[in-house]
User: Fold these one by one.
Assistant:
Number 1:
Amino acid sequence: MELFRVVTLAEARRLLTRYWPLPGRQEVILPLLAALGRELARPVTAKDDVPGFTRATMDGYAVRAADTFGARETQPVILRLAGEVPMGQPAAVTVGPGEAVAVATGSMMPPGADAVVMVESTEVLAEGRVAVFKPVAPGQDLVRQGADVRAGTTVLPAGHTLRPQDLGVLASLGVTRVTVYEPWRVGILATGNEIIPPEANPGPGQVRDINSYTLAGLVRKCGAEATLYGIAPDDLEDLTARIQKALVENHLVLLSGGSSVGTRDLTVQVLAGLGQPGILFHGVALRPGKPTVAAVAGDKMILGLPGHPVSAMVVFSILIEPLLRYGSYDHLAGRRTVEAILSRTVTSIPGREDYIRVRLEAGPGGFLAVPVPGGSSMISSMVQADGLVAIPLEEEGLEAGTRVEVKLF
Ligand SMILES: Nc1nc2c(c(=O)[nH]1)N[C@H]1C(S)=C(S)[C@@H](COP(=O)(O)OP(=O)(O)OC[C@H]3O[C@@H](n4cnc5c(N)ncnc54)[C@H](O)[C@@H]3O)O[C@H]1N2
Ligand code: MOO
């Protein structure tokens, strides 16, 4: 029987990042909205200042701040109303000493003014005069040209995944087409003689395919493309042919099942024969997920995930999702964790990293992480869970009341 060369999770990640990102992704130019969730292939540099002109951020009067010094409720400063700046038009009037010009939120600041007095601090008097009841500081209630984005600066680096706010800054700069990478294409193949499609009625010993659907869902949530390659029986030739087809059409292929040490477990045999550099690891000090196998053949990567539905999902979440979604394991915003208090003691075996499923509940001082019962074959335990809690490699468990980080699904 083949023995696993079990690596730690850290080692497995290190091995995968040697090859990730895989080379050869095409660049495509897309209109702004279509680029949401895509990864920029090139940095974007601002050609213009945003805002393109200094503008008021309150409805009121553009003034010279110094003119308002000393203004009080009981002793207003009286300024001459020199005109107004209409929205969306250039400021045609200049603010001279002792003068005020009416502005609205977003209108262009007239030359000569260095602050805005909000309308609530003023009163219009007869004969084109305005009383100011409060002093303003220079720069008050305006945004200077280029204060948001300065022309010439890099607003978004290459490799950045575009979020709604990123589309916003691009729109503000007049960038309506961006160069992004094609999405990662991920082929998904279930294996096992006992696995049947979900629309079929299982005979004795048969089970419906869960993993194709959980994995495809996880892949799509990462913004990648998922294609199902059906169910391969435990047959060397058939399995090899399906994997090869999936590899041609995708960057990454995910298999589930057949990664353990059983006599019919062909996956490793097939992966070993696909090309160089070959198998990166077979076995991770992880629970669930120990029989995970990874290989690289040329510029393609193949992950053999455990057959148990929970294990396949957990391994995807901790090993693959960060790469597909953020290109690395150390993207801080990618962690998506919440702090919670563990509701009961959980045990673990030192020497492997344990991932337990937890449900979040409202506790007295924040979230409570309640471990969800059920083994790694039970998909319903994932349905009940909101996230995962890691028990570190050398710990024997975590006691009730421990502050834990819950990685949300
Ligand atoms: N002697 C040992 N036995 C096992 C070990 C071990 O180290 N030594 N590891 C156990 C662990 S842990 C896991 S996890 C499983 C994983 O085994 P495989 O990856 O080889 O998966 P299979 O044996 O093919 O399947 C396991 C289980 O999952 C069901 N399955 C598989 N694919 C699907 C699918 N697409 N949809 C739904 N369910 C699926 C399959 O029917 C089995 O019940 O091995 C342990 N054994
Ligand atoms: O480690 Mo297996 O992947 O328990 O379920």
Number 2:
Amino acid sequence: MPANSESHSLLQVRNLSCQRDGRRLFAGLSFTLPASGALQIEGANGAGKTTLLRTLIGSAGDYDGQILWDGRPFPASLPQFRESLLYIGHRAGVRGGLTPLENLAWYGANRSAAMQALEQVDLFGFEDSLCQNLSAGQNRRVALARLFLPDAPSLWILDEPLAALDVAGVAALQGQMAVHLSRGGAMVFTSHQPVALAGLQGIQLADFAVDELAESAGGEHVFG
Ligand SMILES: Nc1ncnc2c1ncn2[C@@H]1O[C@H](COP(=O)(O)OP(=O)(O)OP(=O)(O)O)[C@@H](O)[C@H]1O
């Protein structure tokens, strides 16, 4: 089946536009993300990357255009979409008053799976420390450990996953992203840094900004 066929697409975005505080962040944004597709959203600070991700996960309903999951539009498909979604936001969702093991348990991981995931992100020995006593990079690793759990959901939406990671952490994450894609998973993420990932496609949000002189419509992009 061709990667860009309607039936094979996981996430479809059609003519998406969004504004905040009277300012249009992006307009005419269309893309299709199939299984094994990876898309990096790029743009300057304040360009609207986080707003776009929050729109894609169904947390911001004030947009124009259409978002479809598995061929069915939001909001009707949101329950099925959320079953397939692993979202790690800017603030990473790590509870400081819990340990790394307890944080992963909160997401449903058993002790054995959580320990293996924490080892993968090089947090062995820190599993019982309170996260509020760990560094920024270690807390980011706790959040990212969810990507190393078995049976991770098929769609990853990640806001700045590389932020605060050291060189080894970036390499480990890129490796796990490649594994996920090889298993038929898909991902959309923001990053100000280049990400080494075969087949990775990119969108510059500035290309979808609207100014007073010209409305840019980027056309349909198919990634995978
Ligand atoms: N709820 C909101 N109310 C008003 N303005 C908002 C809201 N959310 C975002 N904005 C504005 O929209 C713009 C885009 O914000 P966003 O966080 O999406 O940018 P970003 O591209 O992710 O930036 P960065 O690279 O700095 O993280 C900013 O100017 C921000 O102030």
